[in-house]
Amino acid sequence: MKTTALITIVFMMAGCQGTPSRYSELPNVDPNVMAFIVNDASDQLQKKYPAANANFQFDLKCGAFGHALEEKLRAQGYAVGDGGTPIRYSLDLYSANSPRLLLSIGDSQWTRLYNVENDVTKVGGAWAIWENEKNGQ
């Protein structure tokens, strides 16, 4: 019960953070942690956006996480370039061993918390996804 309440509070706080203006990320993220989060994010993107129908655009000034995610998406067959759905992100540290990813993809926001213990990264809960409705749809 405590865990469920904590996860709910974490996601509510993440939702209050707002849309990242472009990107932000932690400096010196362990490569294994970064790879885990990139793989997790790309797996989630595949569920929502089939590669044949999606085109994404990253800010040219994005950091290591953005470049790694862009590379992973290209390897999975996604079109990445100008005119695509913009992806912005924030990879921050919620607590000492808990990185948090906030993705802004077009009009939706996705966030997830991770836990790192003894050099092992695990998801800290389900993805929280907010879809902004357009034109009352």
Q: How large, in whole angstroms, is the Cα Rg?
A: 15 Å
N to C succession of SSEs = HEHEHEEEEEE
Assign a percent range to the helix content: 25-40%
Helical/strand content category:
alpha/beta
Count of β-strands: 8
Task: Quote the average pLDDT.
Answer: 82
Counted by DSSP, the helix tally is 3
Low-confidence stretches: 1-21
Oligomeric state as shown: single chain
Separation of the first and last Cα atoms:
35 Å
Largest beta-sheet characterization = 8 strands, mixed
Strand percentage: 25-35%
User: Which descriptor suits the 3D outline?
Assistant: globular
Structure, described:
The structure is a single chain. The protein is an alpha/beta fold. It has helices spanning 2-16, 31-48, 64-75; strands at 23-25, 55-58, 79-80, 85-95, 98-105, 108-117, 120-123, 128-131. It is built from three helices and eight strands; from the N terminus they run αβαβαββββββ. Strands 1, 2, 3, 4, 5, 6, 7 and 8 form an eight-stranded mixed beta sheet that branches. Strand 5 (98-105) and strand 6 form a beta hairpin. The radius of gyration is 15 Å and the shape is globular.
